[in-house]
Specification:
The chain is an alpha/beta fold. The protein is globular, with a radius of gyration of 31 Å. The model has no long low-confidence stretch (mean pLDDT 88). The structure holds adenosine-5'-diphosphate and zinc ion (ZN).
Amino acid sequence: MFVDVAVPVKMTGTFTYRLPDGMGAALGARVVVPFGKKLMTGFIVAVHEDLPPDLSEVSIKPIARLVDEEPLVTEEILDLTRWVAEYYFAPWGDVIQAAVPSGMRLASEVSVSITEAGRQALAAMTPTRLKLSARAQALEMLGQVESLPLTRWEKKFGKTRAKAILRELERKGYVRTRYDIGGPQVKPKLQELVALSDGPRSETRRSPQAARVLDILAAAEHPIPLSELAARAGVTPALIRRLAARQQVTILRRAIRRDPFVRTGETPPLQWFELTAEQAAALAEIEKKLDEGTYATFLLHGVTGSGKTEVYIRAMHAALRRGKTALMLVPEIALTPMLSQRLRSHFGEAVAILHSSLSEGERYDEWMRIARGEARIVLGTRSAVFAPLRQLGLVVVDEEHDTSYKQDDSPRYHGRDTAIVRAHRQNAVVILGSATPSMESFHNVHLGKYVYLPLGERIGGRRLADVEVVDMRQVFARHGQQRVLSEELLTALQQTYERGEQAILLVNRRGFSSLVLCRRCGLTIRCTRCDVTLTYHRSMERLICHYCNQQRAVPTSCPSCGGQYIYFVGVGTEQVEERVKRLFPQMRVARLDRDTARRRGAHEQIIREFASGAIDTLIGTQMVAKGHDFPNVTLVGVISVDAGLGLPDFRAAERTFQLVTQVAGRAGRGDIPGRVIIQTYYPEHYALQFARAQDYEGFYQREIQFRQALHYPPVTTLIQVIVHHRRAERAQAIAGELVAQLRRADALGQIRTLGPAPAPLGRLRGEYRVQILLKTRQRMAAHRALEQALDALRASRTDTHAIAIDVDPVDVM
Ligand code: ADP
Ligand code: ZN
């Protein structure tokens, strides 16, 4: 028997191995296989009796170890990951790896053993040497044993030191190393429970402490957790363990759940609303499809606060009632702790959550609960699209327009689109929800592929906030200089504060100012590895690259001309925070951006404090625009969105329209009407005009004309290819070759190829980037041509690792 194994390496295709006699193999099980000089973990994706004709029996290596008796990945998920791999040009092994929690990965282990030369050297060492030299001590540890895990050295000498010692001893030929694959990195968490043992108990030599322990246990109905028992009896855990060694008590181990909900606080009481007519109509359509058991995608287009979430929840109940399970994707759970709570109040333990700020252990436990069928509702971010739910009946993608659904490194898959494919194959129903649907989804409504469900009214007949635009050119003219905050916004902020209401200020960049400029020679300080300027972070007193995190000291004079006129240009969140705090010393101000939300749970913390009213004004990046429902927010200020409009990206207007509309939707969600103030240097830009009028249709009609005229998605398929290389000529050459092959493969001329040309972000992390854009109305033709071109490059031994393919890119920078 032979098996095909998908291995997580940057190579396409699978690898064939022999299955040793007597070893069973199931699709989706993990195996350890020899791969080059190393061992690697892969997944069985096919089992067959015959070898393909191009392989010879003798060259096939056997599998080293079968890890799972029961497959870890279901066949359904294997099929889905295969689709992702093919559609997005990603290695299948990589995709499967992304589909399971990282804690499931097996640890790679390095073990060290001593050689004959090492033994001789050790024998010749003097006692002083053994005492003083770490290398000698390391060698001595190996003297008595066959081999030692490298971790033992690491514990004694520290990680880097251990590595250096290893290198040195290897160089001298004193030790040899072996690479192996160990157990999973994360294991179930065990709790120790103590019970009386069954056997006879000796009454002699019983200390008063031991007596207390035994008395408590005798009175208890259930085994007691060890730590709790120690506390209650006032003894040390060690004493209880000694009792266990003497068979006085028994210690049992039980796996306990690491519950991510413990951090999100109290679950609120369950609320059932009477649905509005619009909500009820939408739900009826959805239930009809659930009854038919056929695939359908709905676009639930509801203005902010129109009760979309309530529709999702009812649809989930409806799916559960029909014996199905449900998956809900959100862009970022940490930002919406209230949503997890709301689901918990409806579905209790049946909800599992999966997202990146869980600990590895929590994610492992949640995933296992889903796999075992204990959790039938999954709330998660992008990779939760691969959650091992069975009988999937419903998929909800909230804020479906959000670009964070697209993974920005390999595998570059889109969570929303993958969810739709999964649902289609499972005959499940999809609800895409948004106040600002993506151009793609709305276009699909027009094409009749999606069913449109509008929620046009806010709950309780609340009005959308009034939007005012402040022309910053006039503010400049008034003062003869640039202002961060206009009088209009300042006055509004003051009034909001005095009324005891809350405000949100959106700034599109973190840090203090976006660039550092010498007024004498015009030099801007740039990253040495990327084609961008460095951002000044005052809290750290550093200049930082937002792409590669390169950091530098802040110069006091120009590094080029030595001039003293160093200017900090552009406004970031830190600067707005500092100004607001200076102007309103009493106001409680908090900042939410990647810098303040780095620590696990910091997001939730800030959001919770704002929701509880402990913060008056929340300043932040687009993180503040997402999905929250704060009834007491009556003012939203947009400080700078202009930079976004200037980006050389065909989605710049769409992005800005969505951002402004979304953040505007945060105002006036309670009983008091809200106000939105947008500061801009381009008040006439259509994205701002339509956002101001909260006119989605108007924006779509205008934007689709532009996409049609320039052949951009959603009217065409776009594939971006970036060739990246340390040497610019090499990147150019590979890109040139690829384009030539593409032209050859596209005999019918169905693909429009642009480039090769330097990418807008021409250098990143020290590599030059050359861009090729493929536009086509024949998606399959483009896929085939690209496949064929890549094959041709591989055949001519061109380095295809330099080629990064992004199918349906969300940005083309
Ligand atoms: P969206 O997801 O569209 O922003 P939500 O579903 O969060 O809207 O609803 C906004 C607010 O209205 C929430 O506080 C929610 O509890 C409440 N709500 C939703 N549906 C109803 C309803 N039918 N009757 C009363 N209140 C509702
Ligand atoms: Zn950089």
